[in-house]
Amino acid sequence: VGVPATGTPTILDLFATWCAPCVAQMESLRTLHDEFGDDVAFVSVTNERLGGGLTMDDIRSWWADHNGDWTLGHDPESELMRAVRANGLPYLVVFDENGTKTWTHRGLASESNIREALEDVR
Length: 122
Fold this sequence. Notes:
This protein has helices spanning 20-36, 56-65, 79-83, 111-121, and strands at 10-15, 41-46, 71-74, 91-95, 101-106. It starts with 9 loop residues before the first strand and ends with a helix. The longest helix is centred in the N-terminal third of the chain and has 17 residues, at 20-36. Helix 1 (20-36) crosses helix 4. It is 35% helix and 22% strand. It is of the alpha/beta class. Strands 3-2-1-4-5 form a five-stranded mixed sheet, covered by helices on one side.
């Protein structure tokens, strides 16, 4: 996954299918994705390891069940989590159009706080 999208403000959502707050976060992200349209690139990435009963199809199904229809990525080596210094899930990062990190949030973020962070880079 190339994050952030070149020339476009981007929100990166690090999540896991086992993470209850990540489900609630998806509701806010869904609303904001509809609201911001193409002005902001949305990217959600999980670092869950496949195996032990978890398949990529399971992740895709979870994604569809929670109305995700933006870019979905898989980072099994947690390279992206390390790169943004994520220390919990959900973890959100907003990048401006130049790829500069402008906002981060660990745990469930309110829709209004995410909206404000996105408006600052739009």
